[in-house]
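Input chain follows. Return C-alpha cells only.
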Amino acid sequence: MTENKYDLNPMINKISITLLSLMIFAFSKADAQSTFSQVTALFQANCTVGCHNSSDNSGNLNLTGTDQEIYNRLVNVDPTNPAAQAAGYKRIKPGHPDQSYMVRKCNNNLYSSANLPDESFGTPMPNYPQPALANEQIELIRQWVYEGAPLSGSPVNTALINSYYQEGGINSIPEIPPLPTEPGSFQLHIGKIFLAPQSEKEYFIKYDLGLTEDIYVNRIEMIMADQSHHFILYKFLPGQDEFFEDGLRLQNPNTGEGSSGNSSTLVNAWQISYDTNLPEGTAYLWEAGDILDMNYHFRNYDLDSILAIEAYINIYTDQSPETPEIMYSDLLTNLSIYIPNDNNNHIFSKADYDLSAQNFINVWQLTSHTHKYGTDFDIFKRNEDGSEGEKIYEGWYNTDYTFNQGYYDFSHPPIRQFEPQIEVNPRLGLIQKATYRNNGPNPVFFGLTTNDEMMVYYLQYTLGDLIDNPAQIGESPENSSIKIFPNPSVNSFNIEFNSELFGETIIEIRDLGGKLIEQRKLNLNQGRQIIPINHSLKSGFYFVDIINTSKSFRKKLIVN
C-alpha cells in the first residue's frame, strides 16, 4: 500500500465513522426523542395507512393518538388473533420480543425463529403495498422490547444498531441452530445484543416459560458466541421474580446490582458452547410457574467492529413414565483472593462443606472458572482433619477431560463428568485450590469484570443416602470452635468463638451469588467470645465468611 497522508486507510476510516456516529449519538441523546416515540413514529408512518387508524382499526388496534394512548393499547395487551392468544403472546410483552405479536408481525425474516408461525397468526406488517420495515427499524422495535418496553427514556443505542446494519459488524453466531424436534423439546433465544468495540457487558434477563405443569429437563444444548465469558441459567425462587424488572438488567460490575443473587438458584453454567446431557434417569425439575433468570457476560475484543451477541438454548425433556432423580447444582467461590502483579505463582485454597447436610451427594460434573491469570485449578475430597484427600479434578486436562495437556486453559476449562457418579460426604466437603500468575500492570482481586479475577467451580449432583451416623463424622477440628445462633435468624444472630482464634478478623455476609452485603472488622481477644450481629436482611440463604490472618471459615445463614 502506498503511503499518502491525505488518503485514509479503510480500517481507520471505518473506525472514524463508527466513533463519530457514537459521539454524535452520545451528545444528542439527551435531547433525542424517547425510544418509544421513535417506535410509534415507525408504526404511524408505515402501519396506519388503511389499517390501524381511527376509522379502520384492523385487529381492533388504533395506532394513532398520543404516546400514552398507543402505549396503553400495546403493552401487556392480548392480541385479538386467536392463534396468538393461544400461544400466550401479548401485543408487546416487555423483555420478550419473540413473545410479542407486533414484533413477529414486523419481523420480515430478520430472525428466522421470530416470524409468524403459520397463516393462522395473520399476515405480516406492514401490509402490501406498504414496503417491509428496514432491518434497523425492526431491530429498534425489538431492542425497545428487550429493554422492558418503557414509555419514557432512551435506553436503545440507535447509533450501534444503524452502524451494524448499514456498515456491517460481527455476527456472533453465523448459522442459526435448527429448532429441536424431539417430543417435549423447545428452544430459548437471547439476542441480538449490540456491543461497541472494546467494551464489556454483563446482563440478566428473566424468562417466563409459561409452564402450566412440571417438566423434567434432561438435556440442555447451549450454543453461545465465541466472545462469551459465561452464560449462567438460574431459576427464581417462588415469587422472587416480582422484585425484578422485565427486560435486560445491566449488572453493575462494582456492586453486582442487577443480579438476582439469593433470589434464585443455579441450574447450570457454561463458558463455551456445550451439550449438557444428564445421566440416564436424572433431570432438572422445572415446576409449573417457574421463571428463569439468564445471565450473559461477554466482551467485544474487536478494535473497530460492532458485535451482535446471541445465544440459543435447546431444551429437551424426559418423556419416560418413570420419575427421574433430581439433579442439583451449586456454584462455589473463594472471594478472598489477592494476586499481586509480580509474575510469581500465588496459590489459594478453600474448603467448602456443610455440617448441617443430611444426605451424601453423588457428584456427576465438575468444572472450574478463573480469568486470564489462572494457571491451575484442582479440586480434592476433604479429609476429616481438614487436609486434602483424593484429587478428583485436575485443571490441566483438556475440555472433555480425556488427557492431561500440561496447562490450564482458563477460557476452555476442563469439564469432568463421573460415570458412575462419585459419593461425597458434604459434611467433610471438597477443597478448591487454584494457582495464579499475574503478569499484568496491576494487582487484582476477586471481581466481576474480565480485568478482575475469580476462583469459582460448578458442582452438579444428585442426593445420595442419608448420613446414618452423624456423630461418627462430627465437626472438623478447625470449625468446631465457631457457632452461629439462632439459625434461622430474623433480625440478629450471634457468632460464638471458642478457640485460640484472635486478632484482626473480618466478618462478611454474602448472598448465594457472592455479592457482599455487609462487612465488619473485629479485633478478637483470646478465649470464648460471643459477637452479636444485627441485620436487616431479606428472607433467604446467605454465607457468613469469617476471615482471620491464620484461618478462614464459612457458615450458612438462613434468614426468615
